[in-house]
């Protein structure tokens, strides 16, 4: 072998090893486990925490093993350096790896739904199905590249006002608006900004098309108008390429569907679990 070729191979190997050394391992996410039976893993929305799922969990634990998860940078979960939504999915995979794959359903709300989609696409062997609640797989109103930096600069200069506007708009009424903003305001600004930077370039429609497990989309009135059909919604939010999708619209609910209608959401999850696990047993 020529010395030149040996040098090139050595340099390439060194570069690869250096990249491997720099890759940080996934962070360990804090969880709360309740109940016994088929597993339901619940991932919350941006600015919330794992206990936001408690109204739904209470209705599931009689017949299910419920695992509520804190996203990276939320609650008791650390924030990884060089954060990406894929890094969040990698961290979630450590939680999923501890479950029984033949009887586990993954559920995510909002940003948690996007992370769940990435995990389901990358590791379908961990679960039998995935549910997303009020989560867009891609932005319905993407910001052009030339405007993105201006938008980020605005967030930097008017952070408190922006977060207040963003979260109060998601409240179903004024009381819920105050509550969700108060919780989101506790998140470290650096963490919030890292998630927002990721959401500006969000397009998980490829992950949707790559799904090997059934998908259920749950929407509420605030993001799913009564006069809009599922095909219209699917195209708007990036789900039109899902190989095996079902959907459910829950009325009398805002963005926080699980808090507004916990009975309906718990029923939708349990029905999907029974249908999906029943189909795999046949």
Structure description:
With 282 residues, this protein is α/β, with parallel strands linked by helices. It has a single domain, classed as Rossmann fold. Helices cover 48% and strands 13% of the residues. It has twelve helices and seven strands. It has helices at 3-22, 54-60, 85-96, 111-122, 145-157, 159-168, 174-184, 189-200, 205-209, 230-237, 257-260, 262-281; strands at residues 31-34, 39-43, 65-69, 104-109, 129-133, 215-220, 245-250. The chain has a seven-stranded mixed sheet with strand order 1-3-2-4-5-6-7, sandwiched between helices. Helix 5 (145-157) packs across helix 6. Residues 6-21 have low confidence and may be disordered.
What attributes does this structure have?
282 residues; alpha/beta; Rossmann fold; 7-stranded mixed beta sheet; 12 helices; 48% helix; 13% strand
Q: How far apart lie the N and C ends?
A: 58 Å
Helix content percent band: 40-55%
Number of domains: 1
The CATH topology is Rossmann fold
Low-confidence stretches: 6-21
What is the structure about, briefly put?
The chain is α/β, with parallel strands linked by helices and 282 residues long.
What topology does this entry show?
Blueprint: H1 3-22, E1 31-34, E2 39-43, H2 54-60, E3 65-69, H3 85-96, E4 104-109, H4 111-122, E5 129-133, H5 145-157, H6 159-168, H7 174-184, H8 189-200, H9 205-209, E6 215-220, H10 230-237, E7 245-250, H11 257-260, H12 262-281
Helix pairs in contact: 2-12, 3-4, 5-6, 6-7
């Amino acid at each position: 072998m020529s010395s030149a070729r040996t040098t090139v191979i050595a340099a390439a190997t060194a570069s690869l090893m250096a990249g491997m050394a720099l890759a940080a391992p996934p962070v360990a996410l804090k969880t709360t486990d309740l109940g016994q039976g088929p597993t339901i893993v619940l991932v919350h929305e941006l600015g919330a925490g794992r206990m936001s799922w408690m109204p739904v969990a209470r209705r599931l634990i009689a017949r299910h093993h419920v695992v509520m998860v804190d996203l990276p940078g939320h609650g008791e979960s650390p924030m990884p350096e060089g954060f990406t939504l894929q890094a969040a999915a990698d961290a979630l995979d450590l939680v999923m790896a501890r479950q029984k794959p033949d009887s586990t359903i993954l559920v995510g709300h909002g940003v948690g739904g996007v992370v769940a989609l990435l995990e389901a696409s990358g590791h379908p062997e961990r679960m039998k199905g995935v549910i997303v609640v009020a989560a867009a797989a891609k932005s319905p109103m993407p910001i052009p590249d030339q405007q993105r930096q201006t938008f980020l600069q605005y967030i930097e200069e008017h952070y408190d006002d922006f977060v207040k506007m963003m979260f109060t708009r998601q409240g179903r009424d004024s009381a819920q608006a105050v509550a969700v903003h108060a919780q989101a305001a506790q998140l470290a600004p650096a963490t919030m900004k890292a998630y927002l930077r990721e959401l500006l370039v969000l397009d998980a429609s490829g992950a949707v098309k790559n799904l090997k497990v059934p998908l259920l989309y749950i929407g509420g009135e605030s993001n799913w108008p009564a006069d809009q059909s599922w095909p219209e919604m699917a195209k708007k939010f990036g789900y039109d390429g899902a190989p095996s999708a079902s959907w459910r619209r829950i009325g009398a609910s805002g963005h926080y569907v699980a808090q507004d209608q916990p009975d309906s959401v718990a029923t939708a999850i349990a029905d999907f679990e029974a249908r999906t696990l029943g189909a795999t047993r046949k």
